[in-house]
Amino acid sequence: MIDYEEKMQKAVDALVSDFATIRAGRANPHMLDKIKIDYYGTPSGLQSVANIAIPDARTITITPWEAKMVKDIEKAILASDLGITPNNDGKSVIINIPELTEERRKELSKDVKKKGEEAKVKIRNIRREANDAAKKQEKAGEISEDEQKDLETKIQKTTDKFVADIDSKVEAKTKELMTV
Questions:
Q1: Cα–Cα distance measured from residue 43 to residue 28, given in angstroms and rounded to the nearest whole number
Q2: Average pLDDT of each block of 10 consecutive residues along the chain (180 residues)?
Q3: CB of 151 within 8 A of CB of 135?
Q4: 3-state secondary structure 9-31
Q5: Distance between terminal CA atoms of the chain?
Q6: Which of 8, 11, 70, 99 satisfies CB 3.0 to 4.6 Å to 122 for a cystine?
C-alpha cells in the first residue's frame, strides 16, 4: 500500500515540476530547466554551465562560466519551445519576459488543465494496480475478503486525496496564469 502511495506522490511531484516550466509572465529560473547545452560533448542543463539570476520580475540573466558558451546558450534558448528571444551582451544572455496576451494565457491554462488530467490518469492507473494486487492477495489466500475490501477502501481514499491535491494545484496554476 505504501509503495502505491509513493507512486501517486511521484505523479503529483512530476506535475508540479511540469508546472514550474510553464511561463506565467514572470521571470522564473525553472522555465529554463529543460534546456540542454552541449558542454564538451555532454548535454548539460543551464544550471551546470552558468549562473542564472533574476534581477527583476521580467528579466533573467544567464552568465556562463566560460565566455565562449554565450552563443551556445543563446542558440539553445532560441531552439527551445519557450517562445522567448534572448539578447546577448558578449558576457551574458539576457532574457526579457514579455507580458502574456489574453489568448496565450488561455492556451497555457488549457495546457495546465490537460497536464492535470494526465496526472489524474496516472493516479487512477496506480489505483487500479493497487486494487489488482489486493484481489490477487485475496485469491491467493494471503488476506480475507473483508481485508481486501478494507484495503480497496483505503486505496480509494488515498486516490481521492491525491486527485484533490492535483485539482488544487491545477486551480492555483490557472489562477496564477490568468492574473494580469
A1: 22
A2: 86 87 73 82 85 86 88 85 81 84 86 93 94 90 89 93 94 84
A3: no
A4: HHHHHHHHHHHHCCCCCCCCHHH
A5: 43
A6: 11
Neighbours of 1 (CB within 10 A): 12
Distance CA 179, CA 108 (A): 12
> What's the number of CA atoms in the CB half-sphere (13 Å) around residue 117?
6
Cα 105 to Cα 121: distance, rounded to the nearest angstrom: 24
- The answer to whether residues 28 and 59 touch, using CB atoms and an 8 Å cutoff, is no
Question: 178 is written with which cell numbers?
Answer: 490568468
Residues in the chain: 180
Task: Enumerate the β-bridge partners of residue 50.
Answer: 64
Cβ atoms of 65 and 73 closer than 8 Å = no
